[in-house]
Amino acid sequence: MVVATNTTSIRSEKIRHIELPIIDLKAEKSEVVKKIVKACEEFGFFKVINHGVPSDVISRMEEEGKEFFAKPVCEKQQAGPANPYGYGSKNIGIMGDQGEVEYILLQTNPLGISEKTQRISTDPMKFRYAVTSYIEAVREVACEILELISEGLGVPLDTSVLSRLIRDVESDSVFRLNHYPPLKDSNKNTSASSFHHHENQNSTSNCNSNNRVIGFGEHTDPQILTLLTSNDVGGLQISLEDGVWIPVNPQPISSFCVFVGDVLEAMTNGRFPSVRHRVIVNRVEARMSMALFASPPLHAKISPIPELLSGNNKKLFRSFTWAEYKKTTYANRLGERRLSFFMILEDEEC
Ligand SMILES: C=C1C[C@]23C[C@@]1(O)CC[C@H]2[C@@]12CC[C@H](O)[C@@](C)(C(=O)O1)[C@H]2[C@@H]3C(=O)O
Ligand SMILES: O=C(O)CCC(=O)C(=O)O
Ligand SMILES: [Fe+2]
Question: Per residue in 4-61, pLDDT tens?
Fold first, then answer.
């Protein structure tokens, strides 16, 4: 039984260690397509290697993140509050969700980036270059994966049906840097740890040695696809069935984790379920992750891909715009199954 409380500590639950799929994007194409489809159906999750994002692009972004999170809190706060874009600590979203995490949320369009970088780094040009080249390179991988997915779903005549949503200049994609300081830091008043000094003492006092402390509570990502990479500190877990959690090893270190988001679940009419995941805080080392949430433009209409509605396949979700979905997302708690608000009921016309 899972006993998840608001205080971010968890008592008894099941953990299962299984090998999650690692897909080599440079392998033979038809094999890659098959493996991606299988992983999306089975887990809504896989890792990719040989993705083509240069290692210096990743390490440059990682350095910028490290530099930012090492600053004193008052300097980090110069980035402005995380809602809608900026620096956040402990509060995730506007609905009162809490986690032992600090983060930066950024828009991915050039204007959004340059507006924020002035407040994030003492060398805004350097920061902007790192973010822009990272986002561009990772977006390309997301597009490649979405094109492989379209092929695997049997829409060979229009393999850009998904990727064009995120290539669109008006794509509402978001970039997020997450930093989870280790629990042992909670007694030190260093710049990297002071942001959670008081609260962490409360949450750790609720834990015995078996208890885990939640960095990022369980949720699905609302967008199409998320591409995430981290340093070599684990903590990410995905869930397949209620109450069973599967730890995601951060290795291979140059890989990207790929998460199916709610919009992809809707567009595949439920064939690729969005994956529930969470982060457990490491007791000794800091985890840092960098996630690109590939989203459609706000006005884009989301409906199941017509090819997936043939035969007995009934339309499961009503059509919605990304703006409508995003509004519902932000009006609900982190762990909510928000797609259920868009499900077509048995006797309902669509
Ligand atoms: C509590 C919330 C934070 C979140 C918006 C929400 O209302 C529910 C979903 C959350 C999430 C999870 C994935 C991404 O990290 C995120 C940026 C997103 O699009 O949805 C966050 C939102 C957030 O932190 O603002
Ligand atoms: O830090 C991680 O590994 C996961 C973060 C996450 O799920 C998110 O930012 O939505
Ligand atoms: Fe997530």
Answer: 333 344 557 899 999 999 999 999 999 999 999 999 999 999 999 999 999 999 999 9
User: Which pTM value belongs to this model?
Assistant: 0.91
Q: How far is the CA of 54 from the centre of ligand 1 (A)?
A: 28
Domains of the chain, by residue range, sit at: 10-342
Position 224, amino acid: I
How many whole angstroms separate alpha carbon 331 and alpha carbon 96?
11
Q: 19: which DSSP letter?
A: P
Ligand 1 atom nearest the C-alpha of 219 is: 12
Q: Which residues contact 122 (CB under 8 A, 6 or more apart)?
A: none
Q: Which option is the CATH number for 10-342: 1.10.1740.10, 2.60.120.330, 3.40.50.150, 1.25.40.10?
A: 2.60.120.330
Of 271, 287, 318, 338, which is the active-site residue?
287
pLDDT tens track for 82-122: 999 999 999 999 999 999 999 999 999 988 888 888 889 98
